[in-house]
Amino acid sequence: MKTIQRLIGYLDAVNEATGRAVAWLTLGMVMVTFTVVVLRYAFNIGWIAMQESITYMHAAVFMLGAAYTLKHDGHVRVDIVYRRLSDRGRAWVDLLGTLLLLLPVSGFIVWVSWDYVVSSWALREGSGETGGLPWVYLLKSAIPAMAILMMLQGVALALRSLLVVTGHPEATPEHDPTQEL
């Protein structure tokens, strides 16, 4: 059981570090957006690369921060029933949801996006706009990266839930939905 808890800790740490790192991009988005607006309206200067960089940062925050949000139980859900369940009942819902939905869908996303991303890398695909960013292939790489990070966090969630279901109270989830509202 200690090995499972250690594995859960490592998986959580990967997504915690990734989420905290990409969170800083929100500050970058604000600063770049401010700069774009000032350049456009004060100096009548447009800069396509700066405008595209906002899109890149926005995509990175959402795609690479999704698993961090899952780790902290921050995704939207209809929890009218879920929050009324016992810890064990919630663990069952989390375990089944992870095994039947999260892991298969994430695996499908990796499978479907793989050739798309590989061909983009082979071409070193760049922006279709003159003066745009030359790294579209990096942006597209966020698609399978998001799915892989979600799968890693899904494994952590499934293992944590399995420990709760099997009666190990020290493995209860970090977030308690009964404390909301």
TrEMBL record:
Pfam families registered for this protein in UniProt? DctQ (PF04290)
Top-rank taxon, per record: Bacteria
The record lists the membrane-crossing segments as 21-42, 54-70, 91-114, 134-159
Q: Does the keyword Metal-binding apply?
A: no
- Report the residue ranges that make up the Tripartite ATP-independent periplasmic transporters DctQ component domain in this protein: 29-162
Enumerate the UniProt keywords alphabetically: Cell inner membrane, Cell membrane, Membrane, Transmembrane, Transmembrane helix, Transport
The subcellular location is:
Cell inner membrane
Care to name a GO molecular-function term for this sequence? transmembrane transporter activity
Q: Which InterPro entries match?
A: DctQ, TRAP_DctQ
Outline what the protein does: Part of the tripartite ATP-independent periplasmic (TRAP) transport system.
The family annotation for this protein states: Belongs to the TRAP transporter small permease family.
Record text on subunit structure and interactions: The complex comprises the extracytoplasmic solute receptor protein and the two transmembrane proteins.
Q: What is this protein called?
A: TRAP transporter small permease protein
